[in-house]
Automatic annotation (TrEMBL):
Pfam families: Glyco_transf_4, Glycos_transf_1. Residues 31-137 form the Glycosyltransferase subfamily 4-like N-terminal domain. InterPro entries: Glyco_trans_1, Glyco_trans_4-like_N. Residues 183-318 form the Glycosyl transferase family domain. PANTHER family: BLL5217 PROTEIN, GLYCOSYLTRANSFERASE. This is Glycosyltransferase family 4 protein. It comes from the Bacteria. Gene3D superfamilies: Glycogen Phosphorylase B.
Length: 369
């Protein structure tokens, strides 16, 4: 088991394995929401004195012990044809070290379930994606004892049989972004160009309000045909500027100077990291009422929750009534990496202090012990 801190702080130092997806480095060089969150969590756990090992790509930068499972993030690895192969290697590497840990924290979706289901070491899995996919019903019926973390209450609704032990909202380092003045006179769109992210809606809102729109977004191979057919021709308008993918340093300036972030989603967004990135800059968000939005947003405080393009157009005129200072304060109250890490540590301690259950006796969760 873990060591104890000296002095008056007798809380046990936990030996934690963070198992990250391998598609991006930690932190990502460009886009990569899940990897970004795993990075912030890992660094905060180290800062709080825990013994953390990170299983990730070899080009990751971390204060934790790094065990590389591939030399670089797979999305930028030009010669990678089968990314699943490296995730299987990752599980094998974890097997070589598994007895060194008090708790395993997976961020690799359900890939590890056949492996972690046999372990005598507590584990928990944060689900970072959408759960309204039909095949997932069979997966979670087959593995009913996996301890799961949701990133919003809304995310877990399609999977009522899932063994969810807690919802932990994402968090960012408090000093990652700074409060901006919003003097750029443009609306911002940040994320991916894909049908569910609503870039067409964002363009319409900008044109109808005669406001410049800057689009900082990646285009996945799977969405390239959509971009070519539905979006590309819309970028020729003088009010619309396509910036491309941007990194964290560029993101701060991009969001801090924007009048508002447009988040016109058309899918059940599990969390929406870009919303709290904007809040960290004091930038209001105009977000469609889908998925996690009502949980993350404080309507009329951090921005406006809308139900249509027409409502979003009307909301643009109300931005002047919002306080950027209050938006930043809302971020500091709810969405820091410190708060996120503390929530996860609470789960880890319960898992570590509980006797590992015999799954054949029908117990639904380690947390029920």
């Amino acid at each position: 088991m873990g060591k104890y801190r000296s002095g008056t702080d007798k809380k046990k130092i936990l030996r934690i394995a963070q198992i990250a997806p391998l598609y991006e480095s930690l932190p990502p060089k460009l886009y990569g929401g899940t990897e970004r969150i795993v990075h912030y969590l890992t660094e905060e756990l180290v800062r709080e004195g825990h013994d953390v090992t990170l299983f990730a790509s070899g080009d990751s930068i971390t204060h934790a012990r790094l065990i590389a499972c591939v030399n670089e993030g797979l999305r930028l690895k030009q010669d990678c044809i089968d990314p699943l192969a490296y995730h299987i290697i990752q599980m094998q590497k974890l097997s070589a070290y598994v007895n060194e840990f008090d708790v395993l924290h997976f961020h690799t979706d359900y890939l590890h379930f056949p492996y972690s289901n046999t372990l005598k070491i507590p584990s928990v899995t944060t689900l970072h994606g959408r759960l309204d996919i039909p095949e997932l019903q069979d997966i979670y019926n087959t593995f009913p004892y996996q301890n799961l973390i949701s990133i919003s209450e809304n995310q877990r609704l399609p999977l009522p049989q899932g063994n969810f032990v807690k919802t932990v909202y994402h968090g960012l380092p408090g000093n990652l972004h700074h409060l901006g003045e919003g003097t750029g006179e443009y609306l911002a769109f940040l994320g991916r160009i894909s049908p569910e992210k609503g870039v067409e809606r964002a363009i319409k809102i900008a044109l109808e309000t005669n406001t410049k729109l800057k689009i900082a977004a990646k285009i996945d191979k799977a969405d390239f045909a959509y971009y070519e057919e539905k979006v590309k021709f819309m970028l020729d308008h003088p009010l619309i500027e396509y910036v491309g993918e941007i990194n964290d340093q560029q993101k701060t300036e991009f969001l801090a100077q924007a009048k508002a972030l447009l988040f016109p989603i058309d899918w059940p967004e599990p969390f929406g990291l870009v919303m709290i990135e904007a809040m960290a800059c004091g930038t209001p968000v105009i977000a469609f009422n889908r998925g996690s939005v009502p949980e993350v947003m404080e309507n009329n405080v951090t921005g406006f929750i809308v139900n249509s393009v027409e409502e979003a157009i009307h909301a643009v005129s109300g931005l002047k009534y919002l306080s950027r200072i209050e938006i930043r304060r809302a971020f500091e109250r709810r969405f820091t990496a410190t708060r996120m890490a503390e929530d996860y540590i609470d789960v880890y301690r319960i898992l570590v202090n509980s006797k590992f259950p015999d799954v054949h006796r029908g117990r639904t969760s380690i947390l029920d012990v």
